[in-house]
Amino acid sequence: MKNSMLSSRLLPLVMALVLVGCASVPQSLPELAEAPVFKEHGVTPPAGWTQALPAEAQQRGQWWLVFADPVLDTLVEKASVDNQSIQAAAARLAEARALARSANAQRLPQVGLGGGVSRAAGADRATGTQPATLGNAGLNVAYEVDLFGRISQGVDAARLDAEGREALLQSTRLAVQAEVAQTYLQLRALDDERALMRKTVDAYRDTLRLSQRREQAGDIAELDVARIQAELSATESDALALDRQRSQMEHALAVLVGDSASRFDLPGSEWLTALPSIPAGVPSTVLTRRPDISAAQRAVFAAQLRVGVAKTAWFPNISLTSAAGFAAPDLGDLFKWSARSWGVGALLSLPVFDGGRREAGVQSASAQLDAALAAYRQQALVAFQEVEDQLSSIRILQEQSTVQAQAVVAAQRATSLSDTRYRNGYVSQLDLLDARRSELRNRRQALQVKSAQYQAAVGLIRSIGGAWDVPGNEVLTQAALR
Question: What is the CATH number of the domain that holds 156?
Fold first, then answer.
């Protein structure tokens, strides 16, 4: 009778526990990826947003090959292996994967061997207050029943953390590769600018020698010679400044490729790197390949799961334990068959009052989720800004290059005419110097515009997460993120 009454009283508690266990914390993932078309392509954006699946695992290929520069290819490949930032990101990924394996180990039974010897008085009624020795050795097994999903959600969160670290490794690799390309292209632009400055210095020296001969012949005053000497010295100073800048750029490139600046050397050469053409209609869904956006997505998903883990603190914790081995008061009898012992048990713990600790834990996890969502949305907005910046730069720089080329042609013609007229005494030396300054300024500006075009091309590749020739370029409409 007592047993039946006890069973009837415990039944509602058991049923409640079962129902609570079935009511697991929802783990639906938020719909975050929204991808309108890029404004710079001149296409009218749709009225709404288009959802797209994350595609950070999509192959990006060796995007730097579009520049058709063997030296650049070698530098990027070396940096991909030897750059220290990439190696540090790889180490953080290994750490995150180890933590994920550690979290997954909680799903399995924990088995251990144990043994010990204790001596106490008063614990044995047979010996009274006389000290007694007790030795034990055995096998212990413990297993936590994941009835409410605390362990499984923690494992999933750790897995998402590891996936986020993997995406950050890809992001670091892409950033380093792009920085190597941009630094190398800046260095080649400096080589061309230095060559231009050397030619200008040689021209000024020829003019100075001519002016000195004319001064000796009494055709011009000493003031004209002093002006040319001042212009020559100023141009030489600018050339030396370019040499210093080029040296620093080479040292920065050495660090990027994981080499010592003391032994790294990149000889100057003619700038023959191809400028790739950007195809029209690059879909905005390529942003789903950006590793930093993928990492932010994983952070959101992991934070959501940790909200679920925090909520499971309200549920009971159930553990199963068992032990088997030997126990004897005499160490010589410890491993005899008659000294064998065993035991099984089940532990259930349910906090009743904790001063608001569990509620605070849920609120903290929810706040972390809100922060992760805001960080993801901010990252997406920054990604669109970066792409639009580079697309507009490429478009405007192309127009600027055309106009600047016309300015260079006109300045060269003006210098040629001024030089002829100066030699024949029709114009003053100041007119010739002004013409040469204008030509030098326009030719340097043309080189800087050209360099900016290359920088924008690399910047666009980096901002869209890799090369723009995406296979299929498909847009996935109304797809739920997984």
Answer: 1.20.1600.10
